[in-house]
Amino acid sequence: MKMDVLLGLQWGDEGKGKIVDVLAPKYEIVARFQGGPNAGHTLEFDGIKHVLHQIPSGIFRSQILNIIGNGVVLDPIVLKREIDGLGKFSIDYMKNLVISKKATIIIPTHKLLDAALEKSKGDKKIGSTLKGIGPTYQDKIGRSALRVGDILSPDFQEKYETLVAKHKTTLSFYSHPLDELPAMEEQFFAAVEFFRTLNLIDSEYVVNEALDSNKKILAEGAQGSLLDVDFGSYPFVTSSSTMTAGACTGLGVAPSKIGEVFGIFKAYCTRVGSGPFPTELFDKDGEDMRKEGNEFGSTTGRPRRCGWLDLPALRYSIMINGVTQLFMMKGDVLNIFKEIKVCTHYELPDGEKIDKLSFEITEQEVTPIYKTMKGWNCSLENITTYEDFPVELKAYVEYLEEELNVPIKLVSVGPDRTQTIIR
Ligand code: GDP
Ligand code: IMO
Ligand code: MG
Questions:
Q1: Rounded Cα–Cα distance for residues 133 and 168 (Å)
Q2: Do 74 and 68 form a contact (C-beta atoms < 8 A)?
Q3: Would you state the pLDDT for residue 222?
Q4: Rounded to an integer, what distance in angstroms lies between the CA atom of residue 268 and that of residue 309?
Q5: From the CB of 134, is ligand 2 less than 6 Å away?
C-alpha cells in the first residue's frame, strides 16, 4: 500500500482540517509530518466547531490511529491543552493518538527567542505566529534540540538546562526580558509530566508496517506550499518542508511509497503574516472576501490578507508536490461577486510578462494580469451534486482544470463536513 498525502497549495488555511476529517473514514491512519502549534485546522460537524493545532484531524473518527510524526515540532503545553479540550468528545487518546519519540520539543525559551528575533527584524518581521517554530527547527538542524524520547531519559533536566543556558545567551544579546520564564517553565514541566504518560513510539516502524499490511494512511500537511522553507516566498516562510517530500522525511516513508497527492486550494487566496502576495486586494472586494470567508487566523485571530486566485503560484505548487488531484475549497465565498478574477501572469516593472515564480519574484513588485470571468452570484446552499452547480461555477472549475492540467475532484461549499461536493 502507498501513503496518500494531502497538502495546502497556497499560504495556509486552505481548509486542510475540514478535508482530512471528511476523507478520514477511508483511512486507518492519519499522520502529521511537519509544523507544530503554528497550524490551526478547523473541523465542523454536528453543530460543533473545533480547531486543532498539533493533533491530526482524524482524531474525531474513533477507528483512526492518529500519528504525530518525527518531522513535527511539539509544544507539550499546547498538547496538554488540546487533549484536555478533547475531553468533552469522549475520545480515547490513549488508543487513538501516538507520538514519535523523534519529534522535536518546543521549550519555553524557543517562544521567547521567536519574539526576540521578530522584534529585532523591525518592519522586516516575518509575522510569525510566535509559537517558537523557527527557533526550534533551528536547534533541530543545529543538532542541539530536545526530542520527545528525551523526556523519558534520566538526564532530561540536565539536557534542558544546557539548551536553556544557550538560549539565554542569545536572549541577553537581544536584551529580551525573562520575567515570564519561571511561569512558563512551571507550565512546561507540568505538561511534560503528562506527556510522559502518552503513547510515545518509533512511528516510522508503525507507519511502514501499516503500509506493508495494506493499511491506508493519509499524511496531513500543515501550513502551505508557498510557506515551504525552500520553495516558499523566503524569508517570509515557515521553517519546515511543507511539501510532499516533507511527508517522506517527516514520517520516514520512502518516496516510492507515495500514492495520491491531494492538493487543496481556496477558490481565491489568503495569507497571514508578511511577505509578497501579488494578487492581494486592498479595496472593498478584499474586505468583502475577508468578511464572507471569515478570514481571521485560526491560531492567532489575525485578519487574513485576501486576493484573487493566482494561477502561476498554483501551478508552481502542483509542480513541486506532484499533485494528482485538486480539491477546491470555499467556493461559496465567491457567491457575492458579480465578476471573478484569476491571475494568469505577472508583469515585471520593465513590462516583461512572466508566469513563473523565479528567484527574483520575491524581490520585485509585480503587477498581476487578470482574466475576468462571470460570477454565479447566487447561494450554493442545498446543492448536493456538481451537476446542480450554476453554469458560471462549473465554467470556473473547468477553466481551472484546463489551466492546471490536474482534475478538480472535490469542491467545498461550506465549512461543515456535509458541505462537500465530490465529483
Ligand atoms: P487549515 O489550516 O487549512 O485547516 O484551514 P483553517 O481551518 O485555518 O481555515 C479554513 C477556514 O475555512 C475554517 O474556518 C473552516 O471552517 C472554513 N472552511 C473550510 N471549507 C470551507 C468552505 O468550503 N466554505 C466556507 N465558507 N468555509 C470553509
Ligand atoms: P495552517 O496549518 C497560515 C505563517 C505565519 C507567518 C509564517 C511564519 O493552519 O495552514 P511561523 O510561526 O511558522 O514561524 O510563521 O508562516 N503561518 C501560517 N499561515 N496558516 C498556517 O498554518 C500557518 N503557519 C504559519 O503567519 O507568516
Ligand atoms: Mg489554519
A1: 17
A2: yes
A3: 98
A4: 4
A5: yes
* Cross-strand partners of 104: 73, 147
Pinpoint the alpha helices (H) of 121-155: 133-141
Active site residue 212: no
Evaluate: CB of 8 within 6 angstroms of ligand 2. Answer: yes
**Which of the residues in the chain have pLDDT under 70?**
none
Nearest to 346 by CA among 363, 323, 322: 363
Prediction pTM value: 0.97
Reference 256, options 320, 209, 208, 222; nearest CA is: 208
Neighbours of ion ligand 3 (CB under 5 A): 13, 40, 298
Q: What is the pLDDT of residue 190?
A: 98
pLDDT of residue 101: 98
Ligand nearest to the CA of 34: 2
CB of 331 shorter than 6 A to ligand 2: no
Ligand 3 mean position to 230 CA, how many Å?
Answer: 20
pLDDT of residue 218: 98
Q: Is the CB of 420 under 6 A from ligand 1?
A: no
Which cell is 217 given?
494512511
Which residue blocks in 199-310 are alpha helix, DSSP H? 203-212, 244-249, 284-292
- What is the number of other CB atoms lying within 10 angstroms of the CB of residue 7? 28
Bond into 235 cis (ω within 30): yes
Asked about 41 being catalytic, the answer comes back as: yes
Check: CB of residue 321 under 8 Å from CB of residue 10: no
Strands (E), 27-153: 29-32, 41-45, 48-52, 65-68, 73-74, 97-100, 104-105
CA of 1 to the centre of ligand 2 (A): 32
The H or E element that residue 310 is part of is strand 309-310
What's the pLDDT score for residue 301? 87
Q: What is the DSSP string of 264-286?
A: EEESSEEE-SSS--TTB--SHHH
Distance 423 CA to ligand 2 centre (A): 30
Q: CA–CA separation, 61 vs 46, rounded Å?
A: 13
Q: What is the dihedral of CA 222, 223, 229, 232, to 10 degrees?
A: 140
